[in-house]
Amino acid sequence: MAESADRERTAAYDALLERYERYSNLRHVERLLEWDQQVTMPAGGAPARADQFGAVSAAGNDVLAAAETGDLIERIEEAEANGEATLDEDQRAVVREIRREYDRTATVPNDLASDLSAYRTESRGIWEAAKAADDYDAFAPRLDGLVELERERSAAIDPDRDPYEVQYEDSQHYLALDRVEDIFDELREHLVPLIERIRTDGRELPEIPAGTYDEATQDDLCREVLTTLGFDWDRGRLDTAPHPFHASTQFDARVTTRYDESNPLAGLTAAIHEFGHASYQLGLPQDAYGTPLGESRSGIHESQSRFWENHVGRTKPFWELFLPTVTEHFPSLSELTADEAYAAVNRIHPENLIRVEADELTYHMHIILRCEIDSALVRGELDVEDVPEVWNDKMEEYLGVRPETDAEGCLQDIHWSSWLGSFHGYTVGSVLAAQVDAAMRDDLDVDGLIREGEFAPLHDWLGEHVHRHGRRYRTDELIEVATGEPLTAEYFLDYVDEKFTDLYEL
Amino acid sequence: MAESADRERTAAYDALLERYERYSNLRHVERLLEWDQQVTMPAGGAPARADQFGAVSAAGNDVLAAAETGDLIERIEEAEANGEATLDEDQRAVVREIRREYDRTATVPNDLASDLSAYRTESRGIWEAAKAADDYDAFAPRLDGLVELERERSAAIDPDRDPYEVQYEDSQHYLALDRVEDIFDELREHLVPLIERIRTDGRELPEIPAGTYDEATQDDLCREVLTTLGFDWDRGRLDTAPHPFHASTQFDARVTTRYDESNPLAGLTAAIHEFGHASYQLGLPQDAYGTPLGESRSGIHESQSRFWENHVGRTKPFWELFLPTVTEHFPSLSELTADEAYAAVNRIHPENLIRVEADELTYHMHIILRCEIDSALVRGELDVEDVPEVWNDKMEEYLGVRPETDAEGCLQDIHWSSWLGSFHGYTVGSVLAAQVDAAMRDDLDVDGLIREGEFAPLHDWLGEHVHRHGRRYRTDELIEVATGEPLTAEYFLDYVDEKFTDLYEL
């Protein structure tokens, strides 16, 4: 009896895994189509590409959201609840993760999903025109409509919960929104006065000398630095794209960056950030490819990119190590000292209005502002028509600067043509990166290793503590497993305090 | 009554088209994954890529072979048969084409399809090892197994017909096998003595001077030639791959070639060939993308590549036009005359044993030999163990040369690890290219246009007569529509007679 129940459970589990594997592969193909579109596709390919995306995405949805998937999950869960069959820890994690994705997909009616998709496509052009014309009123009705559709979607997934929380869980899994909102409050209370002190009392930091830094040389430099950092070129590539991103699995990790000929280091920094994402993917177990144990945790991803970007790439030892490489590529920089390079890549510019151009510190105020406005919109606490004023007031309060146009204010990002509530990850990523960095420093002499160009121990540590687990643990559990404690703002705030107090001689 | 039947028919037709559109897009994505694997994928990506292919392919099959597809087709055909609703010509063509693809896919049991797929994957490694060891016996059982599985598959599709004919229709649609076999007989009778005369009585043709021709310069040359030939770079790319191929839609046409530093023109010729394929795809109607009317006819494709490769790229006017471009890139060739270049690219080498290195004339004997052996195997007229001897006898009979090893003989091609019966298209393509060329010359001064570098009229003619029709016509019908008569060997035989009699001064 028990044996046959176990066979039955095993068959159901295998069938579920096979469905998930197809779904997961189709998702990776979607990501690859995106990479191809940004990197290699001729411009004329766009119309067909949209249809190709649609077909792959629909095929993935069909496999995941099919009634058969739900039946399999239920059979497994029932057998488990009745004690008829027992899953091991990893198998339980697999079922938990597939259940989560199934619930979010299967509960949204097809009509609503395709309405949303069509609405987003249409809104994009309207946003572009509104931004170009600095005409918020032309876009406001689209934002209003999006808020309505997103509320409807949240209600379809779970009518009993805060619709914003439901939406937030699209991108953040297993990391309680109220905890993240508390952390954001702490950050705001701490960072606003710190930024204010830098603005008023900080010394003037050096800048990278003005000049023209040609793209091909920047690309060479980038490749040399990524090689030293340990990028596995047999499983990876580096290309340029209009907006840096990555498209990666544990077998094939593609980093993109963009080069600005007036700034020799921006492209490098972006590449190191994406290299962090790629390294996480490359550290996932190969034998679990196509299962949740071979997938990354979305809430962890940005901590890996920020770790490499900030806790490696913006440190003094990094510049001690790499400045000779940089000046070899750009001899015009040979007067620069490592201290100056370090200071230059860490300059704060609160006067900047644009999120994607923000520095390591002020960036988080751009994020917090967006999360506050997004949540107020979805929760019905803010009218769409009041957004520009609230935006500008917050910019003034947080960064001491007020946009003169909506194009530089609330219309700057494309995101409201497509979604709300997806920005937390950037700031959570930085907070967690600092926490990971602190835990790693308990075990390793990180500064010494960077100075020596020894990056394998850093990869090993991250692989052991974070990457190899895939989605074995919930996000909040994985944070504890990796760092020994729950998510906390403490390490990030210590890190920015120490770094910027020192740099700006406050 | 009639009105509601028509509405019903329209709804069924639209639903069928929507299914086909998904299927068609997934097929294009598969092709793009192939391109990516050959051109951009890091080597380490292979294991995941196999799974991604599998997922996209299964998703396409699921959409096409679903019972719902069959029901829709039947409802439409019944309404049509009852006179309840009337399709226009184009719609009838759409239903005919979807029916053909549906019948071939839905009739093959899933188990057989996956057995075949697994068998092929396994055979590939065994073929590689057998070829490397020149050990036919190690591979023979795999070929035997493939013949069995293919016969089984043919029987599943249509148990009442010649299994080889059923298989042939995988790649050749609506072009009767017996007609093609007659044409092959004509070719054999004509080409074998012509090749023999060239071997014994032909003068010695000049060769391209030996030297090292660097890859980057060959690539520049290729791009310049393709630009003059009218390649639309906004909808296309050129890259290198281990084996030249193309992956194209009417929006995005990707040509690949490979460069050999000892031969400055082989890469160019391959690129022109693939450019011909790409031009066909680019000439398909954009508004029919995702429907059979926006897809190419497989039996026509090779005529378009061969037209550009041979009837443009291997003509005297072509070399009159492009020789200055070639010598500008490779000054060491500046002694060469256009007549010499023309002769050099048209050299026949019957002593060559390898199909993929064969010239324009002897190539067809390699194809005919394969088709004869494949058909005899599938029809049960030849035992697998006798293949090497039959192969070598035919090589001797057709080309006057006998392979000393099976590695250079019947083990040379990878195809028997995967399929049988798919080679006709190459020779049909050349035959049809000559027929198309002759029809075009009734309307245009082709030589004069080539000499002037005016290629737009050639594209326009092909677009008008061939490309714009997609799959509107059956292959045999399209040949008549495009050239005014059924497929015939006449023009091809006249063309090779005239060209090689003149070149070799026979």
UniProtKB/TrEMBL annotation, chains A, B:
<comment type="similarity">
    <text>Belongs to the peptidase M32 family.</text>
</comment>
<dbReference type="GO" id="GO:0004181">
    <property type="term" value="F:metallocarboxypeptidase activity"/>
</dbReference>
<feature type="binding site">
    <location>
        <position position="277"/>
    </location>
    <ligand>
        <name>Zn(2+)</name>
    </ligand>
</feature>
<feature type="active site" description="Proton donor/acceptor">
    <location>
        <position position="274"/>
    </location>
</feature>
<feature type="binding site">
    <location>
        <position position="302"/>
    </location>
    <ligand>
        <name>Zn(2+)</name>
    </ligand>
</feature>
<dbReference type="InterPro" id="IPR001333">
    <property type="entry name" value="Peptidase_M32_Taq"/>
</dbReference>
<feature type="binding site">
    <location>
        <position position="273"/>
    </location>
    <ligand>
        <name>Zn(2+)</name>
    </ligand>
</feature>
<keyword id="KW-0378">Hydrolase</keyword>
<comment type="function">
    <text>Broad specificity carboxypetidase that releases amino acids sequentially from the C-terminus, including neutral, aromatic, polar and basic residues.</text>
</comment>
<keyword id="KW-0479">Metal-binding</keyword>
<keyword id="KW-0862">Zinc</keyword>
<keyword id="KW-0645">Protease</keyword>
<dbReference type="GO" id="GO:0046872">
    <property type="term" value="F:metal ion binding"/>
</dbReference>
<keyword id="KW-0121">Carboxypeptidase</keyword>
<protein>
    <recommendedName>
        <fullName>Metal-dependent carboxypeptidase</fullName>
        <ecNumber>3.4.17.19</ecNumber>
    </recommendedName>
</protein>
<keyword id="KW-0482">Metalloprotease</keyword>
<dbReference type="Pfam" id="PF02074">
    <property type="entry name" value="Peptidase_M32"/>
</dbReference>
<dbReference type="GO" id="GO:0006508">
    <property type="term" value="P:proteolysis"/>
</dbReference>
